[in-house]
Amino acid sequence: MQQDVIIIGAGVIGLATAEQLLLQGAKVTLIERNEVGLESSWAGGGILSPLCPWDYSDDVNRLSQYSAQLFPQWTSNLYKASGTDPEYLISGMKILSFVDKKIIEDWRLQYPTKIKYLATSHTDTHLNKKHNPGNQDQENNSSILMPDIAQVRNPRLLKSLHISVLQLGGKIIENCVVNQINIRNHNVHSLTTAQGQIFADYYVISAGAWSKTLLGSHALGIDIKPIKGQMLLFKFNEPPITNILIKDDVYVIPRQDGHLLVGSTIEDVGFNKKTTITARNNLMQKAREILPSLDKMPIIKQWAGLRPATKKNSPYIGRHSTLSNLFINAGHFRYGIVMAPASAEILTNEITNHSQKIDISPYQPGSAFRTELQ
Ligand SMILES: Cc1cc2nc3c(=O)[nH]c(=O)nc-3n(C[C@H](O)[C@H](O)[C@H](O)COP(=O)(O)OP(=O)(O)OC[C@H]3O[C@@H](n4cnc5c(N)ncnc54)[C@H](O)[C@@H]3O)c2cc1C
Asked: How many CB atoms lie under 10 A from the CB of residue 270?
């Protein structure tokens, strides 16, 4: 592929897309308003699965499962190329909420996944009694372990991607906001940026939660908005647990060096990234129920990120419905890390006219436009 491609936004989606296009021989420039990888992609937990995947649509499951199995090879290649280890780790994910075995088994028929039903553990005994005192039905009451679920460490994944993109010959322009998309004859003609006009053959929007704002009147049914998520960070001398633990809407992620993340809130408050005491107290209270040893530990950091949420709850990946040299890779909400390598592969196949390995019709921006016209 000989063409020039400009990618707007250097989060995990923009970087992974740049890497794939460079591997196909494209000339790629990434334009980033701030510095590389400091927004949602940095803020996230790095769990390589939706939290309780049976609660999600086929569109989310298909893409996340396909993408998750690309990670071992992808992260190993990134480590070799960049010298930075993204810390891909199969840590397993334990769900301590009440589970309906039938729903899980039905889901598993379509998405074969290892699952162990566990006897009630010390971390959930108290919760089971408190929330379900009368129900002794073990079929629907046990915790479960998904032993094959993995995690990565977001800042390290981003650093390794950043280095790899540069090594592959990609150009990255930081501190350069794209202010406007200029159209001529149903094509993007140029971008107006803080550093002047920029031209390319193809343009990709991977601006996360800001993608709809950037598209402006060209959004045409593409509906992406920010949903704030807050996280807490702790540091133990050694990892106090091995599995990722989830109870209802709160999870605890152990890193290999003793860092431990607690997340996350889901707040519909616009482009507001301020952390709050209320979120800290709520997360802390629920996390202590999951992992009582957190009680004595100081919070070493609290932060927030803006997830790019869509109404249909799955991303837009593909060609814009009316502008033929414009492509979108955005709207990955809570699953942008796990979906990154597959989303990059799909978009690259779209630009280079290669066949796709999974059905991509649900992710195509054109479907949003058709829905809006109806
Ligand atoms: C608290 C939290 C926990 C999460 N946990 C997980 C998890 O465990 N697993 C998982 O898979 N996902 C998780 N996610 C979701 C995941 O982080 C996101 O879906 C993913 O990071 C989205 O990546 P992105 O590249 O689209 O967006 P971003 O990382 O936000 O990148 C977009 C980039 O575009 C730039 N930009 C925007 N507008 C412009 C412009 N006009 N000009 C130039 N640049 C621009 C921004 O500065 C930004 O750097 C979590 C998210 C949060 C917030």
From this structure: 12
- Domain formed by 91-149+226-310, architecture: 2-Layer Sandwich (3.30)
Tell me, what's the pLDDT at 372? Answer: 56
- 38 - beta bridge partners? none
**Whole-model pTM?**
0.94
Residue 57 gets the label, from left (phi > 0), alpha (psi -120 to 50) or beta, of: beta
Is residue 53 within 6 Å of ligand 1 at its C-beta?
Answer: no
4-80+154-223+312-373: CATH number: 3.50.50.60
Q: How many CB atoms lie within 10 A of CB 295?
A: 9
Q: Is 368 in the pocket of ligand 1 (CB under 6 A)?
A: no
Ligand 1 pocket, 263 CB below 6 A? yes
Averaged pLDDT score across all residues of the chain: 92
CA of 41 to the centre of ligand 1 (A): 4
Question: DSSP assignment, residue 44?
Answer: S
Tens of pLDDT along 30-49?
A: 999 999 999 999 999 999 99
What's the rounded mean pLDDT across residues 248-265?
97
Q: Is the CB of 41 under 6 A from ligand 1?
A: yes
Domain boundaries, the chain: 4-80+154-223+312-373, 91-149+226-310
Confidence of residue 3 (pLDDT cuts 50, 70, 90): confident
208 CB less than 6 Å from ligand 1? yes
34 CA closest ligand 1 atom index: 47
